[in-house]
Amino acid sequence: MGVQLPRWVWIGAGALACVAGMINVVGYLGFEHQAVTHLTGTTTLFGAAVASADLRSAMHLLGVAAAFMAGAALSGMIIQDSTLRLGRRYGVALAIESVLLVLAVPLFQRQQLAGALLAAMACGLQNAMATTYSGAVIRTSHLSGMFTDLGIGLGHALRGMPLQRRRLLLCALIISCFLAGGIFGALLFARVGYLALLVPATLTGLVGAGYVLYRQWQSLHGRGIA
């Protein structure tokens, strides 16, 4: 990757990956043991549920997938772009993600499926926010692509081929932050249960509100962002 990634891309990708790691571990440790940040396992389990004629599980898993996709669609409506660039409505999207997570907490506590649906919707919204920057594919809610790119880089290194060092560093950052979020989220869940979701909700809410205020300040001072 020949283009220098600005600092805000690194910070944002790491922070969102950490948030996703926390959300996912809470969903997995919860009453349904349901991962909510990605759909590979969900789709596999849906197929198994259909094959075994387990209608309840099939509808549950289909609902999680639909909620994730709905969150991504909402992000597309708000941001209206597939490329990261300052000036898009990221603050609004992050604020909505925060609200969804806050609303999910009491539903999770009452062991209602709607909690997982809201959490999945929040993750779909977040994942669709961060797509590409200067050709670098950025996904913050799942790691298959990150591990794949690291493996490709290792293969290139073994063959003596030139490496996309910044791309590989970005992958390592996202993986590390997702893992850190999972560890921290699991420790929090053991202590406070589903209230652990209030931490990523607070983080996304503060960043979202701060970014909206920043954009307004830029506009007032004639420094509108493209």
From TrEMBL:
Q: Does the keyword Ubl conjugation apply?
A: no
Q: Which residues form a coiled coil?
A: none
Question: Membrane-spanning residues where?
Answer: 7-31, 58-78, 90-108, 114-138, 168-188, 194-214
Keyword tRNA-binding annotated: no
Question: Which InterPro entries does this entry report, sorted A to Z?
Answer: DUF1275 (IPR010699)
- Could you tell me which Pfam families the record lists for this protein? DUF1275
Q: Which UniProt keywords apply?
A: Membrane, Transmembrane, Transmembrane helix
This chain belongs to which protein, by name? DUF1275 domain-containing protein
Q: Which organism is it from?
A: Agrilutibacter terrestris
